Amino acid sequence: MKYIFSILTCLFLSLLLLNAQGVEIPASLSQPNDTIFQPNDTVFQPNDTIKIPEYTPVSAIDTTKRITYWRITKRTGEIISGNPDTTLTDYVNRLHADGMSISMAYPGNFGLPMESRIYFDRPDRTNFMFADHYYNYAFTPEKHNFINTKIPYSNFTYHSGGSRESKEERLLGLLSLNFGKELNVGFNIDYVYSRGPYMSQSAKRTDWNFFSSYISDRHRLHLTITPTSYTNGENGGITDDRYITDPLSVTNTKIEPKAIPVNLQRADGSQHTWNRQKGTEYYLNYHYNLGFERDTDRKDEDGEIIREFIPVSSIIYTFNYINKNRLFNGTDSATIDKFYNNIDHWNTGLAPNDSTSYWEMSNTLGISMREGFSQWAKFDLTAFLTYDRRNYTMTTLSNGDIFDRKTTLNSIYIGGEMAKRSGKFLRYEAQGRFGIVGENLGDVDMTGKIETRIPLLKDTATVSGRISVKNLSPTFYENNFHSKYLWWDKDLSKVNKIRFGGTIDFPQTKTSISVDVENVTNYIYFDNTGVKQEPASVQIMAATLNQKMKLGALHWDNQLAYQTSSNQDVITLPDLSLYSNLYLQFIVSKVLTVQLGGNAHYFTEYYSPTYEPVTQQFRVQKELKVGNYPIISGYVNCHLKYTRFFVEFYNLSASFIDPPEYFSMPHYPLNPQVFRFGLSWDFNN
Questions:
Q1: What are phi and psi of 339, to 5 degrees?
Q2: CB-based burial of residue 564 (10 Å sphere; 0-12 exposed, 13-18 middle, 19+ buried)?
Q3: Is 0.85 surpassed by the pTM of this model?
């Protein structure tokens, strides 16, 4: 605690010094949506946000603005207002793994798989589990901001940190332009090349995203095409944690991070174990709107009354095709065999070359009644039918022969949505999907959220409640997985989840409190032998507090999560996770906004899950605890017209906290002290 008080004292002294030098420090700066965790703007995402965003009907997308942003629901393509990442606060943190949750577990290098320590931030496992822990990096249709722009808009973002041997670099680019008021096209790129501070953990990732939208009275179309390519080095963690906590006990001299021995490493120190993924997602959503025209109270330049189109109902079609392949391979069989206790399900003695691939084609046909076309139409009402076809190719072994086995699964779902996304006092959304034919027969996936506003202390508090009921079949890879070191064929039961929770938001005090409770039966998880299922029910409770405080130019933003699990052997969670950001915010020469401060990530000690390279999953373990160590960083974060830039000294706490136990997971330390810098530049004029 004394270290935190030391940082607070330094910041207060900085404030006094700035005042003495006559630097302009305004009482406040307008920072809309000032939060490090950008919401997915739909209630059907795991990261439930406080506020239901404004609903934008098809006829009301404001093409008079220079730039308009929106998102869509993936299944039916409903439009929900979106916000670009243009805020200054926590920009220094937002594009790094640590900034993607209150508390994030990952193997220590940016670009590698990650899992939030906050249980209710974790999405359900998908049909291709190897890509699940890249979710925070990936472009997906429901996370994508579609754009309508009167002028070409582009953004360039570059982040870098570390020395030449360990440098992490991230380059993001966005270009969007309109052809008339109705048609927009654009593309994104996200390129990561991160060598990593430790041996054999480099990450190379490329995500492309081509997108287009066409919005008119009768027609509404959204299209995305997203190729991806990931290559990750695997080192299995360092061989001895004392290289971090007490290096002199294992070596006579100080050792550089790149020289620390790792479990999956050649004798000459070179990389030899890899995970590789490639794939493409094609997504198209189309609405044909049925309706009528009516007179408005506006006139055109010739004095004629302007008529407007009122959508009454829509015919909906959604096409989604995903193909992915994954390869785990290595060239030093002896080292990898030893790491996995010389298990060889192939019985060949060859080096691992485990591959699997999958494609999924989904077609959805729906019809909806539109909200607001008359005084009686108080909500959207949608019904849909979905056909999914999934094909898997996986290595198998029969009579001593290794070959690829193909499996095809089919499912038909019916479902519906009901939503009231406009209105000042009451809004709600509900969605249900039910498996009626095929592999997912009997599946239930229902989610709902309701929000209201109540007067409080001369302000308006927002109160929301949420509930979900799920009865989900195991995915193919949860039931079947074949590799050299792990191999199983199961017939797991459906997973049952019932969750309810609520949030109250006090805008006057900038306070938000959330409570969520879930009961899960037949929970599927991983240990060192593979997949497991817990037949008994497990209860999880989480309470989160978001609190922002300000005194003049001094800001202190805090996010805290308290969690409990009734079975810590199956769902292991830290009792307390905390993110705190203390900074001064002021303006220099009336044009340069500066934030000078420090932030800290902290979680209590617990038996953290660790990372398993063969499955790319996070598995439970009971050998070693991590935690009870704050990662404190100092930074300067600036904004000048269309440009944001920062300089950060990461893991400052390693200088004054002894022993320096900065581990994300057992045997996976975080970055040692490193300087980072970043730049984001908008071009929209």
A1: -60, -35
A2: middle
A3: yes
